[in-house]
Amino acid sequence: MLIDSHTHIYTEEFSTDLDDVVKRASDNGVAFMILPNIDSASTEQMLACQQKYPEKIRLAWGLHPTSVNSGWEQELKKILDFHKTYPGVAIGEIGLDYYWEEKYKEEQKEAFSAQLAIAKEMSLPVIIHQRSAHPDTMECVKKAGVENLSGVFHSFAGSLDELDEILTQTNFMIGINGIVTFKNSNLKEILHLIPGDRLLLETDAPYLSPVPKRGKRNEPAYINYIAAFIADVLKETPEKIGEQTAKNARKLFKI
């Protein structure tokens, strides 16, 4: 059994063949898919997916850092109103992203901190997105207070030092996706340092397709390639990697 802990199959890229995508996921052993939110514009599509495949899909509500601007508080309120009616299993994806621009850097930190506080209040895990912003991300997490706060650092592609710092936050897991299969990725060198009970698998579909599907639209069924690659690096079986990471996801998201 496999769980795709982070996928965006509600986006336009899947508008014409979603049924086939979900079937291929099931045929490849994917039991659950976690759909993280981007902004208020994506809430309706997410909900439609979950209602169509209630046995397969769980939702996470949150405001993505690249969707943060000066009106973030109003935008977040719209999203949280959805959560009240259709409860999710996590707050996410949330975090900091300075890769494209830093225009709303302060607003991103405010929105991230606010959502960390909401997650603690609701006793929900967080799905953290960080890109070119590790120091500030960790500062926000630590300021929020890691007691009664859990979650996953999704799409991890950082350094050994960054991994070590995250692992000191004992309630947090590491999300690994197709990046691990890329030729220039350093992840294969540090995979063995991630405790087995703190590893999650994800696709981040439609993005970051793993080898041998690079250049094509990613989808949850391709999580098998990620599990197989990790298993090869760690000298384990893909089945064991799948079982352990599914167990971890069930524990974190209470599914």
From TrEMBL:
Name the domain of life this protein comes from. Bacteria
Q: Does the keyword Hydrolase apply?
A: yes
Binding-site positions, a divalent metal cation 2? H129, H154
Instruction: State the Pfam families in the record.
Output: TatD_DNase
Instruction: Note the InterPro entries from the entry.
Output: Metal_Hydrolase, TatD-like, TatD/YcfH-like
Identify a single GO molecular function assigned to this protein.
Answer: DNA nuclease activity
Residues bound to a divalent metal cation 1 are H6, H8, E93, D204
Keyword Metal-binding recorded: yes
Naming one, the record's GO cellular component terms include: cytosol
- Record EC number: 3.1.21.-
What keyword terms does UniProt attach to this protein? Hydrolase, Metal-binding
Main enzyme class: hydrolase
Q: Which family does it belong to?
A: Belongs to the metallo-dependent hydrolases superfamily. TatD-type hydrolase family.
What is the protein's given name? Uncharacterized deoxyribonuclease YcfH
Supply the source organism for this entry: Porphyromonas macacae
Report the gene name.
ycfH
